[in-house]
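Q: Hi! First time doing this. I have a protein sequence and I read that you can turn it into a structure. Is that right? Here it is:
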Amino acid sequence: MTARTLLAVGVDALVAFVLLGIVVSRMQHSAFDLHAARLRGRAVEIAVVLTQSGRTRPLTAVGIAAFVVFLVMRWPLWIPAGVLLSQIASQAVVEGVKRLYGRLRPNDYLIRREYGFSYPSGHASSAMTFYGAWAVVAWFAPIPLWVRAPLAGALFLWGAGVAWSRLALSAHFFTDVLGGLLFGAGWLCVMLAIAQHMHAFA
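A: Yes, that's right. Below is the predicted 3D structure, encoded as structure tokens:
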């Protein structure tokens, strides 16, 4: 996929994210949210693990571990550095945007109450900007296909699990998670387009 195509897809996803936010910020919940509420309480133990893996400390630990692997393998260190910086920047934007939309979280939370606004889900965003980014890196890594394909698939599925966990724990509405995925996908595509453009002129 070319840098121009990635940029176009990223912009489309970000526009969809903004429009969805405008709609859901004016309602408590939609029909999609009510339907997805059936996921509440499903596999709570697994959901807790997945949710924890989307928080700052585990993400940082994974990033540092990846940095060490790249250092040992003598691969370009700008890749893990770029993923970490992108993650930090994207979450800063998400926190700012949450205040703009000001949507309240569900009241029937499980395990523990989480504060702050609801749209978009920061965990769902990280599922794309962090785990999705590493899935892309794994897919294009200079290692055998039989290693990189399962690794990329596992990273992608883990990210999907992080997004699902927010519904299972009733920490977000479905549209919050969808908004987070849209934002994360848009951000990731734009970052990949920038990286591809910079690499082309390196």
